[in-house]
Structure formats: C-alpha cells, structure tokens
Amino acid sequence: MTIIERLEATEGTLKVSELANLFNMDVNAMYRHIRLGNIPSIRFGDDTIRLDAKQIAQWLRDQLSEQKRTQTVCTHDLAAAVGAHEYYLANKARKAGNQ
Q: Could you give the domains of the chain?
C-alpha cells in the first residue's frame, strides 16, 4: 500500500508525529516544512497542529505531478539542446567540407 493510499484510507486528521512517521522523517523537519508552508496544515490556537489525511494525500499527488511535469520539461529541454548541438556539428561539418 502506498503512502497516498494509506492517507486516503485514514479518517480524520493526523498528528505531526504520525505524518512524520509515515514519511520516515524527523518530527522537527516536518514542523519546519509546516511552518514554511510547504505542507498544508490546520492550526488550533498556538500549540496544536493537525493534518487532514485526505488533503495531504491530494497535496502529495500534486507534488508528484509537478515533479513529473518538471522532469518532462527538462527532458524536452535536453532533447532540444542535443538536437541544437547536432545541428551545429552538422552545419560545422558542412561548412568545413565546402572549404
């Protein structure tokens, strides 16, 4: 079962420590990501933070989707760069052959 599937099967909210355990992360690192706004959270007063399991599952899906989109863009950029370099080399060889 994936982390996303576990989160979707979870009813209600999670404590920060529970999500940290699920992600195999240090609790302090998890709090830091929450404080920076990297992970969606629900605050109750000054001391209590909870995480909606379904919202975290969707957030994680969005993160994975963004990573795939970024990788695809990088792959296309790399292909374009390789193509441009091959064009440059072919053009250079053609010019050298004309001299």
A: 3-98 (1.10.10)
CA distance 25 to 42: 19
Token pair for residue 9? Answer: 């099967």
Q: Which helix (H) or strand (E) segment is 93 a member of? A: helix 53-98
Per-residue pLDDT tens for 23-40?
888 999 999 999 999 899
Q: What is the DSSP string of 31-54?
A: HHHHHTTSS--EEETTTEEEEEHH
Residue 43 — φ and ψ, nearest 5°?
-105, 140
Distance linking the first and last C-alpha atoms of the chain: 65
Distance CA 82, CA 36 (A): 38
- What is the pTM for the complete model shown? 0.65
